[in-house]
Amino acid sequence: MENTYKENNFETIMKGRRSIRNYDTTVKISREEMEQIINDTVKAPSSVNMQPWRFAVVESAKGKEALAPLVRFNKLQNETSAAMIVIFGDLNSFEHAEKIYGTAVEQNLMPQEVKERQLEALSPLFAEMSTEDKKEMAIIDGALAGMNLMLVARAYGYDTNPIGGFEREKIAEALDMDKERYYPVMIVSIGKANEEGYPSYRLPATDITTWK
């Protein structure tokens, strides 16, 4: 019984993981539901809980028009999806440290002394951190959020497609965001599939795993 459950559950998840490029254009996602999806998405882990991910939900005709020349070979997703969710990493995310840790203390999730110790240790580290190191952190944490977003979207009954092919140097400005502060990680298109995604081959564990 347990094996059957695992197999069926795994099959459902994997079917939802197929990348969808053509969406049903009649399907829209309300702002309330999108906020719920994002609130569930950000339960993903992040480095010292700084949560550097920032989301730009591009759903309007004007927004998609601005995005169109920047998404290269992913224009069909832009044209048909309910939204294109651009995930950025905030390179100044430590500005929110006091709010994050302070609220954790207020909600009895963290002792006051732990908060003070953490901030004392982390403040000089973030102050001295290079831009490249901040970008690396943004990519790792943003990717965790992106994968979580895809799984959450599936739980809500929606399909997704992760997109890495876009004009990274231009996308922040196109969305009226500070390109020196917000580093683009990926785009996730979301909506209801208009056609089935194609299955793909994955290398087995024996090909990609080393045991020590």
Task: Give a description of the structure.
The chain has 212 residues and is of the alpha+beta class. It has one domain: NADH Oxidase (3-Layer(aba) Sandwich), CATH 3.40.109.10. Helix content is 48%, strand content 14%. It has nine helices and four strands. It has helices at 2-16, 31-41, 61-67, 75-80, 97-106, 112-128, 131-155, 168-174, 205-208, and strands at residues 53-58, 83-90, 159-163, 182-191. The protein has a four-stranded antiparallel beta sheet, with helices on both faces. It is globular and about 55 Å long. The protein starts with a helix and ends with a helix. GO terms for molecular function: oxidoreductase activity.
Summed up, what is this model?
48% of the residues lie in helices and 14% in strands. The chain has 9 helices and 4 strands. Helix 2 packs across helix 7 (131-155).
The termini sit apart by 33 Å
Written as H for each helix and E for each strand, in order along the chain, the element string is HHEHHEHHHEHEH
Task: Classify the helix fraction into a percent range.
Answer: 40-55%
Radius of gyration: 19 Å
CATH superfamily: NADH Oxidase
The domain count comes to: 1
Q: Provide the residue-averaged pLDDT.
A: 92
> Shape from CA axes?
globular
- Predict the CATH topology: NADH Oxidase
What spatial order of strands do you see in the largest sheet?
1-2-4-3
SS-derived structural category: alpha+beta
* CATH architectural grouping: 3-Layer(aba) Sandwich
Number of helices: 9
Strand portion = 5-15%
Main pleated-sheet profile: 4 strands, antiparallel
Q: What's the β-strand tally? A: 4
Unreliable segments of 5+ consecutive residues: 1-6
In the CATH scheme, the class would be Alpha Beta
Pfam families: Nitroreductase (PF00881)
Domain Nitroreductase: 15-192
Organism: Enterococcus moraviensis ATCC BAA-383
Keywords: Oxidoreductase
